[in-house]
C-alpha cells in the first residue's frame, strides 16, 4: 500500500504568503551573500567580470607556482627536512644533532675561564669580579 504525504494548507494562504514575503532578505543582502548577481549590472558584463576574475586568479597562482622556491632552498632554510634521509630516520638525526650541540655547549661552559683568569688576562678588573 502506498503512503500518501498530506500537506497542511493554511486557512488563509494569502496571509501566510505575506508573512513569508515580509521576512525574506532584500536584494542587496542576496547580492552581498553571493546568492544572486547584481541586477544593476548587465549579465554580459557580469560574465566578463567573472571571467576576468577567474583569469586573474589563474595568473596569480601560475606566477606563485613559477616562483616558488626549490626543495634545496627549503632544506637550506630548515623548512623541509633533507630528502636524502629516510623519514623514519629524520627524528633520530634531529635528536642526535641536539645531543651533540648540548654536549658541545656543556664542554665549553666547563672549559670557560674563571674570574681570576679573566682578571689576569685583563678582561675584568678586580672591582668587576662578583663576590663569592
From TrEMBL:
Keyword Cell inner membrane: no
Pfam families: RPEL
Subcellular locations according to the entry: Nucleus
PROSITE patterns tied to this protein: RPEL
Main location: nucleus
Signal peptide: none
Keyword terms: Nucleus, Repeat
GO cellular component: nucleus
Source domain of life: Eukaryota
Swiss-Prot/TrEMBL RPEL repeat ranges: 15-40, 59-84, 103-128
InterPro entries: Myocardin-like, RPEL_repeat
Region Disordered, annotated ranges: 111-132
Gene Ontology annotations of biological process type: positive regulation of transcription by RNA polymerase II
Gene Ontology MF annotations: transcription coactivator activity
Name of the molecule in the record: RPEL repeat protein
Organism for this UniProt entry: Mucor lusitanicus CBS 277.49
Source taxonomy: Eukaryota, Fungi, Fungi incertae sedis, Mucoromycota, Mucoromycotina
